[in-house]
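Please check this.
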Amino acid sequence: MNFKLTASMMCADYGHLEQEVKTLEEAGIDSFHIDIMDGRYVPNFAMSLNDMAYIAKTTKKPLDVHLMIEHPCNRIQLFLERLRPGDTVYIHPEAEYHPSTTLQCIINAGMVPGIALNPGTSVETVMEMLRIVKSVLVMSVNPGNAGQMYLPYVGKKITKLLALKEELDFEMVWDGACSADKILEYAPRGVDGFVLGTTLLFGKGKPYKETLSDIRELKF
């Protein structure tokens, strides 16, 4: 079964960041997920602009940049000028007065435009943006911290999005509390990618290559 796996780099070992990137590359990761938090839109600080730029220079793999910041339009060029064509940039619709304007900036820069949907964000409120974006990051936990518990009511929203994705031509990526059982359930239904953090990939005392191989060999 064809689905993508992306590493949540806020969970990586920052004492050996370059080695973490190289080891994940060799293990077969498809992309690197970069969580940028400003302490305002979410009650936490995570990765920085410089962290993102460093990883972009260290790997040729795509980056998935998740902007959990207020009014990303005010700073979007700082991110876009440090990325490569084909990288994905997600914004939260609630964080912006005119999210479609920011999405157009992402498109104009040659990046893949995306929106991130919080557990409390309904599909109905983003219908027009679904016609613009190429990727939808579905949060199965509230944004801001790693290691949270899955919120079961998000499953119904995923079902709604899966019914729309072919018509509106977007990919879906699962973010938060991603366990093997979630991949087993939702990859066959059409979810295209999964962000791997502390639930399945990091801090397990197991080589990344072995973990990723186990995931790709799941019995669907």
Notes: Residues 86 and 111 are 5 Å apart (CA to CA). The two ends are 8 Å apart (CA to CA).
